[in-house]
Amino acid sequence: MRYIIQIILYTFLIFTISLNMNAQTKKLSAEDQILQDSLYQSNRKKVLNFSMKEFDTLFFEFFTKKNNPDILLTKTEYYNYTVQIAAFSDRLARLYPDQKEVASQNKEQWLSESYEDYLEYKASQKK
Residues of 9-24 as b/e, b for ≥16 C-beta within 10 angstroms? Predict the structure, then answer.
């Protein structure tokens, strides 16, 4: 029971953060889309087998690095994190079919994350 509540709480947390980060879904450049697709295909099976502990580690590692002004992720590193977080939504949709729409929206939000927006965010941190 505790595990189910924890998953629902994390789904809500991820969805809320995702909505705050991008009010509208943006189109990525063709180059970024190709990179994302490649990373998604190579990470999907691994992420679908993540435990909540592994996902927590990934999620908090991403936000720690993203918010650290001394760390600048490469485009591949950035998209690797966002794609894995998005792919975890597929796992949640399978585990909780009644949350399928929320998981789908969450996945879409994470896949719409732009490296260029991240670079702008990092530039604003330096000021």
Answer: ebbeebbeebeeeeee
